[in-house]
Design a protein that fits this description.
Shape of chain B: globular
Number of helices of chain A: 6
Helix content of chain B: over 70%
Structural class of chain A: alpha/beta
Order of helices and strands of chain B: HHHHHHEEHHHHHHHH
Oligomer: heterodimer
Strand content of chain B: under 5%
Distance between the termini of chain A: 15 Å
Helix content of chain A: 25-40%
Strand content of chain A: 25-35%
Radius of gyration of chain B: 22 Å
Largest sheet of chain A: 6 strands, mixed
Largest interface: A-B, 33 and 21 residues
Strand order of the largest sheet of chain A: 6-7-8-3-9-10
Radius of gyration of chain A: 17 Å
Distance between the termini of chain B: 36 Å
Largest sheet of chain B: 2 strands, antiparallel
Order of helices and strands of chain A: EEEHEEEHHHEHEHEE
Amino acid sequence: MIEVSNLAVRAGNFELSDISFTIPSGEYGVLMGRTGCGKTTILEAICGLKEVTAGSVRLMGRDVTKLPAGARGIGFVPQEGCLFSTMSVRNHLAFGPKVQSWAREAIDERVEELAAELGLEALLDRKPYGLSGGEIQRVALGRALSIRPGVLCLDEPLSALDDGTHAEMTALLKTLTKDHKITTLHITHSRSEAEAVADRVIRIDAGKLSSDG
Amino acid sequence: MVAIAVMYLLLILGMIWADLWYAVTNVSTEEFTALFDNDDIRASIKLTLISCTVTAILSIIVAVPIGYLLSRYSFPGKTLLDAILDIPIVLPPLVVGLSLLILFNKVELFGVSIDEALVAFGKLFGADFGVTYKVPAVILAQFTVACAFAVRTMRNTFDQISPRSEQVAMTLGCSRARAFFSVVLPEAWRGISTAGTLAWTRAMGEFGPILVFASTIRGRTEVLSSTVFLEISIGNLEGAVIISLLMVSIAVVVLVAVRLWDRQNRRRIML
């Protein structure tokens, strides 16, 4: 479950306050709003990448407001993937488990498992250079899921994809998050994308939130 | 536009051609061989290669954290810091040397200058830690200017690397330091190699600060740029031209070697 209560965040001159919403466990929430309305700022605050000035963030019943990003158990997929240009796909999938000191066998097993789920077997030894938009997003998704997070945060993950790949990724996201019961917060400004994936849609307009679903 | 570019290119190539033409028409093989048999010239070449390499390494060590700090963080006084870091670039080279000379020899703390303190400290270990008019002064003079260029290069490099990559690493459990070393630094390798090359070649071309702070003592603090000066001052224009061509050759070899290494690494990292 993602519970955001009376959250206030500041980013330069931009300020958001009194932000509250809940996404129940295992549900797929979509945060929608126009460009520049603060969607990414809210997501960064939840991920621990932006300091909050007031309010709280609870993930899976645990108050994580003061915890560093790495201790929150969140998988984060940024816009356009942001893959590590010097690492192979295999190393992307192994990166999180390695950082969290998993056993070597467990890391190898996780890499194989994710590669199969995301259709990345043939790409494991490739570097990001030359991967297609859809492949980049699948690797970014695999990297985020590698640590078996309870919560997945996606920042406009499908905005740079063509229609065919977009539909494919939408289906993949829906299946994966449902199968693994991952609570998801997905940011988009596309109504059709929100309708395709969301169990719950939260709209933000002029700093005010409204929710349906 | 093309005409302007061609004119500038002709100017650069013309300078090199003029040196080559002068050397070929005025320097005999015996004179050429004699120059490189000279122990002082050999010492100058050796000191140039060593001091430039040390300067490049030190510049990278200093430029990487400063470049990262300027690129990623906002803090009070950042603009001032940014401007201060450009001072060695805009100051006349002689002023850099003079300022170093005064800093190490005239500024006193508890009645002792920095140079005197270093000499006294070195004596405790039976070593000579003196700076002024010695090899450390050559390196410090080169480093003061070369590092400023390296800092600029590293800042631009980090500006071009999305902070999102390290943020993703942090959500996966990395501390900021680990994210830097495992994600950002490998992505910055091209900038680091450019900064190192720039610092190395800049250090080789440095003359003014070395002249004032390290002097041009033959066989001791003489580097190739000061050799050119010394040869001209004793009227040996032929020798000065040969040394100049040697400097051009070293610079070309370093630039080509770094480009080749860079291309090889790029292929290895990309594919």
